[in-house]
Write a structure and sequence with these properties.
- By secondary structure, this protein is α/β, with parallel strands linked by helices.
- The protein folds into two domains: 139 residues, Rossmann fold; 123 residues, 3-Layer(aba) Sandwich (Rossmann fold).
- It is built from nine helices and twelve strands.
- Strands 3-2-1-4-5-12-9-6-7-8 form a ten-stranded mixed β-sheet, sandwiched between helices. Strands 10-11 form a two-stranded antiparallel ribbon.
- Helix 3 runs parallel beside helix 4 and helix 8 crosses helix 9.
- The radius of gyration is 20 Å and the shape is globular.
């Protein structure tokens, strides 16, 4: 987790997700990349447009790009003041999932915000971005969040590949936590699996990484699993929920599982997800 990619909804704003990502980078000694992506205005020009309209659109696009580029020095200086040694700022003109997919190739973690007031801030948009980047991601809800208070971490465990990947991605944070609680649910197998495969020895895996944890049984139907997970996090005063992200491709879209959808829509705490 040495390179953290942050999606910035506005080039000059410091949203909760941007502040979380920068504070997290400072805490774990990671580099951070703030990224602002704006859509290509040329794609919105009607086919038979007048030269004046084309010129206006191009001027608007250049103004957006110039403002975004000028914000870079301010972002880098602010990140340095927060304790981040290595900070960068990127501006791209593209469809947001495509741009993030490209930039994500040299990053280890993706931080993005859930705020319906911003473009690409809804739960379905967040799912699309996470699937596009193929990175472990931390979704940060709107409102103030203290990234330095990652003391109590809750891990939703069901034996799936997604949950295992989320666990591995969260190791740097788990090692720093004061308290780790594992909610052990019913072991999940992919529908396509026929042959038996050896399960992960969770106790041994965490022990080898020097992570002590509490284990709690977790049982909930598929319709209520997401709500129950968030209720457990509230009861435990959790600072971060770690879970697998379940979804399947259907034509050109991703259909996310019920528990994942509920958590994306209603989580009031940061959530680390991995597909």
């Amino acid at each position: 987790m040495q390179n953290i990619l942050i999606n910035t909804c506005q080039c000059r704003s410091r949203t909760s997700s941007v502040e979380f990502g920068v504070r997290l980078a400072a805490r774990i000694g990671a580099a951070v990349t703030g990224t602002y992506v704006y859509p290509s205005l040329l794609q919105a020009i009607p086919r038979f447009s007048t030269p004046d309209l084309v010129s206006t659109v191009l001027a608007n696009a250049e103004a957006i790009a110039a403002e975004a580029r000028q914000s870079g020095d301010g972002f880098v200086a602010w990140a340095h003041s927060m304790g981040v040694a290595n900070a960068a700022w990127h501006v791209a003109e593209d469809y947001l999932p495509d741009a993030m997919a490209d930039i994500a190739t040299w990053h280890d973690l993706f931080v993005l915000g859930h705020d319906d007031e911003y473009p690409w801030g809804s739960a379905s948009d967040i799912a699309s971005l996470i699937f596009a980047t193929a990175l472990p991601a931390i979704m940060v809800p709107a409102g103030p969040v203290d990234a330095l208070a990652l003391d109590t971490l809750v891990f939703a465990w069901n034996g799936s590949a997604e949950a295992t990947r989320a666990l591995r991605a969260a190791l740097p944070l788990l090692k720093r936590a004061r308290r780790v609680v594992v909610l052990e649910g019913e072991q999940k197998r992919a529908a396509r699996e026929i042959a038996w495969k050896p399960p992960l020895d969770l106790d041994g895996y965490l022990a080898r990484h020097g992570i002590a944890f509490e284990s709690r049984a977790f049982s909930a139907g598929s319709d209520e699993a997401g709500a129950r997970l968030l209720a457990e996090c509230t009861a435990l005063s959790a600072d971060l929920l770690i879970m697998g992200m379940y979804g399947r491709g259907r034509f050109s879209e991703w259909i996310i599982g019920g528990a994942t959808r509920h958590v994306l829509q209603h989580a009031a705490l940061p959530v680390l997800l991995c597909h």
